[in-house]
Input
Amino acid sequence: MEELWLRMLAIFRRSGTHEEQLRQRESKVYSLGRYRFTPQTRELMFDGHMMAKLTAIEARLLEYFCQSPNGVIERNATLRRIWQDDDYLRGRSLNVYVSKLRHYLRDDPRIEILNVHGEGYQIVLPDL
Output
């Protein structure tokens, strides 16, 4: 397995694909109203000042919101993406993490994370 892994890395290195993906991820910054979120460093900035250093799960969840069309994330898909399963107990954890994100984003009242009945959640951002 190790040899296979090293060969794959060599192919990625020669093609530049792996490095380009890393550069794109490192440079990615999401704009959320008055907030700026950098997934690579897990930093949430508010008006240019450091607001919070998110946990790994909080950062993955916020990045998933940012990558989703119209900010809608389906509950079971989110559980599988963040925790790799969709059991009931993980669902309770998802509720807690969404609540934490709401708390972090509270200083810009134009940003809301809504419950979408029967589907999941939606982040509503102001038009810029």
Summary: The mean pLDDT is 85. The helical segments are 2-15, 17-27, 56-67, 75-83, 88-104. The radius of gyration is 17 Å. Residues 88-104 form the longest helix (17 residues).
